[in-house]
Amino acid sequence: MVISAVFIADGQRVVTASFDKTARVWNVDGSGTPVVLRGHEDEVISAVFNADGQRVVTASGDNTARVWAISAQALQQSLRAAAADCLSPEVRRAYLDEIDEAARKGYESCERSYGRTPFYPEVDPP
Fold first, then answer.
1. Which strand ranges, in their side-by-side order, compose the sheet holding 55-60?
2. Positions of the WD repeats (predicted)?
3. What are the residue ranges spanned by the domains of the chain?
4. 82, 79, 62: which is closest to 70 by C-alpha?
5. What is the pLDDT of residues 65-106, one digit of tens each?
6. Is the dihedral angle over the CA atoms 7, 8, 12, 13 positive or is it negative?
């Protein structure tokens, strides 16, 4: 059951608070899949956007409030912080069907995006 629903200032999205311990961010036009914000241990009593629409704050019956980044840029930063592994060229070739040069460049680009130097272990000849 939805407890509350609040529109963002530009009217393009709405955030809902629910008894199922989640908040959801919906596109008003019905497109896409709603972003589900999980983490509370009790019903989410309220959810609102901040002034620039980049974050949502939720309040819960578990006596906590949380701030959630919902912009694409903020979500990418969160994903990068949570998953800092880059696929090796070998894995990129096998699973992404990339040719050697594209696999190497993709791996190097990923490593550099984390401020790391790409590492190529030396392989001893058989």
1. 44-49, 55-60, 65-69
2. 1-29, 37-78
3. 2-70, 84-113
4. 79
5. 999 988 766 665 665 666 678 889 998 888 788 899 999 999
6. negative
